[in-house]
Amino acid sequence: MVGWASDIPSYTLAQAKDYFATYYAPNNLTGVLVGDFKAAEVKPLLERYFGRIPRGKTDPPPVVTLEPQQLAEKRLTRGGGDLAHRAHLVARRALRAQGRARPSTC
User: Fold this and answer.
1) Are 28 and 22 in contact (CB under 8 A)?
2) 105: nearest Cα among 63, 65, 42
3) 20 neighbors 52 (Cβ within 8 angstroms)
4) What's the CA gap between 34 and 41, in Å, rounded?
5) Fewer CB within 10 Å: C terminus or N terminus of the chain?
């Protein structure tokens, strides 16, 4: 699981297992194939290696993203550090402030 180290002691083993079973299951998988290949040739390989993994018993809840009203043009420039990581931290702080934070899979 990915999240805050300080969150770990607050979870029971049962909660951790439920989380893992919900979010780390084939029905919550997104895969990307890149390159020069024929989809018809790749599909049997995907079925062979991923098709045998059982579907999770619980579907993950829908992700609800609330887009704030855009009041002006925004520009993003990379200025050192890992931009994706910083954006993730900002989003986590916002969710915590709203009382909606939970371990992240990002």
Assistant:
1) yes
2) 63
3) no
4) 14
5) C
